[in-house]
Design brief:
- One of its GO terms (biological process) is phosphorelay signal transduction system.
- This is LuxR/UhpA family transcriptional regulator.
- GO terms for molecular function: DNA binding.
- It is a single chain.
- The chain folds into two domains: 118 residues, Rossmann fold (3-Layer(aba) Sandwich); 67 residues, Winged helix-like DNA-binding domain superfamily/Winged helix DNA-binding domain (Arc Repressor Mutant, subunit A, Orthogonal Bundle).
- Helix content is 49%, strand content 10%.
- It has a five-stranded parallel β-sheet, with helices on both faces.
- Helix 3 links the parallel strand 3 and strand 4.
- Helix 1 crosses helix 5, helix 7 packs across helix 9 and helix 8 crosses helix 9.
Length: 220
C-alpha cells in the first residue's frame, strides 16, 4: 500500500488553513496534512520531514519577506512542488511566483473547486496558473538565478543580513561560529554579484510582492 501523501499548508490564518485542509482531504483522501503558521515553523517542518509531496504557501506569513519563503523552499527541497495561495493576485506577483519556482498560483478568492483543480494538476506533474499573467521579467529571472546559487544555509544568512544583523548576531541566531558566518557572507556577496551587505539587502527587498498585504479569504 503506498504511503499517504504528505502536504504542508503554510498560512497564518487558522480558519483558512482549516478550509484548505478540508478541501485537500476531500480531493486527496488519506493525505496527511501538516500546518505551519509562520516561516520559522515551516522551516522546521521542511527540515524534519523526510518525505514531502506538496507545500501550499501563503506569501505573507510572519517571518517571511515577500517571496523569501518560496525561494527558501525551492533551495531546500527543489523536488517538492509549491503552490502559492495568496490574496495578492496582482499579475506581476503571479508571474514572479512562477519565475521564482512555484508550480502553481491560486488566488485566495478562488472557490474550493479551483483550489482542488490546481492541486490535482500539480500533483499530476503539471502546473496551474491563472490565465492572465504579466510579461516575463528578465530582471526577476536574473535575480532568481542568482538566489538559486545559494545553499539553504547561505540563504538563511542572507535573510539575517537583510534584517541588519551583524556577523556576531547572525552566528548567535543560527547557531554558527562567527568565522563560518564570515565565510558565508563572502560567498553570498560573490554569488549575488554584490560589493556590499547593503547591496545584498537591496536585492532581498526586490523579493517583495506587488500590491498590499495578504488577508484571509475563505474559499467558497
Amino acid at each position: 500500500m503506498p504511503d499517504a501523501l504528505q502536504i504542508i499548508v503554510a498560512d497564518d490564518h487558522p480558519l483558512f488553513r482549516d478550509a484548505i485542509v478540508l478541501a485537500l482531504q476531500a480531493s486527496l483522501p488519506g493525505c496527511r496534512t501538516l500546518e505551519a503558521s509562520s516561516f520559522s515553523t515551516l522551516e522546521a517542518m521542511v527540515r524534519e520531514q523526510d518525505t514531502l509531496d506538496l507545500v501550499l504557501l501563503d506569501l505573507s506569513m510572519p517571518g517571511a519577506n515577500g517571496f523569501s519563503s518560496l525561494v527558501f523552499l525551492r533551495g531546500e527541497r527543489p523536488e517538492v512542488p509549491v503552490v502559492v495561495i495568496s490574496s495578492n493576485d496582482h499579475p506581476r506577483t503571479i508571474r514572479r511566483a512562477q519565475q521564482f519556482g512555484a508550480a502553481g498560483f491560486v488566488p485566495k478568492s478562488s472557490p474550493v473547486a479551483v483550489i482542488r483543480e490546481a492541486v490535482q494538476a500539480v500533483m499530476d506533474g503539471g502546473a496551474w496558473f491563472p490565465a492572465q499573467k504579466a510579461e516575463r521579467s528578465e530582471e526577476d529571472a536574473q535575480l532568481a538565478a542568482r538566489l538559486a546559487q545559494l545553499t539553504p544555509q547561505q540563504f538563511r544568512v542572507l535573510m539575517c543580513m537583510a534584517d541588519g544583523l551583524l556577523n556576531k548576531q547572525i552566528a548567535h541566531e543560527l547557531g554558527l561560529a562567527e568565522n563560518t558566518v564570515k565565510v558565508h557572507v563572502t560567498a553570498i556577496l560573490r554569488k549575488l554579484e554584490c560589493h556590499s551587505r547593503t547591496q545584498a539587502a537591496v536585492l532581498v527587498k526586490a523579493l517583495q510582492a506587488e500590491g498590499g498585504d495578504d488577508a484571509a479569504t475563505l474559499p467558497e
